[in-house]
Fold this sequence. Notes:
Blueprint: H1 11-14, H2 17-44, H3 52-60, H4 71-83, H5 90-101, E1 106-111, E2 116-122, H6 129-139, E3 145-151, H7 155-158, H8 163-166, H9 171-176
Parallel strand pairs: 2-3
Antiparallel strand pairs: 1-2
Helix pairs in contact: 2-3
Amino acid sequence: MKRNLIDFLPDIFKTFEEFKEIMRVEQKQISELWEIIYGIINEALVDEATGEGLKRWENILNITVFDTDDVKVRRLRIQAKIIEDVPYTERVLNNILTGLCGENGFMSALNNEEYTLTIKVALTSKNLKDEVVAMCERIVPANIVLDIDLMYNTHGILRGYTHKQLRQFTHGQLRNEVLP
């Protein structure tokens, strides 16, 4: 947002050359100050934070940062910690997973008879799998066995491709990578 100091003066002062010059000289410093203020405000918002803001949030929430984490993963980890709320229901867990992985970024199934919760994280969200595991270990009751894995490409998914299209990929890529 461009804020011109001259616009803050009463109209009568805008006509004087002295005031115009003072405002022109001070404009640069005031603009830099506004940029600093906007930067501080943005660092307080998880969705906008980049460096210091993320470090501060991670320190407040006792989150461990890994060298391989990019800004997106760090933000999602902070948001996951913030939105944790007890008591946890299956619907709340699915809402949290939707927030982390996206609408089609996971599949979950709770087997009440065997006390198991199976979560498959889509390949498009595979860098968030460790975060899903950590979050589930914190909020899923201890008597429920967790089975969290990636939702690998299966024959049913690959059925839509021709052999000629699939020939350009290795078996590992066909199983573990998101196909175009």
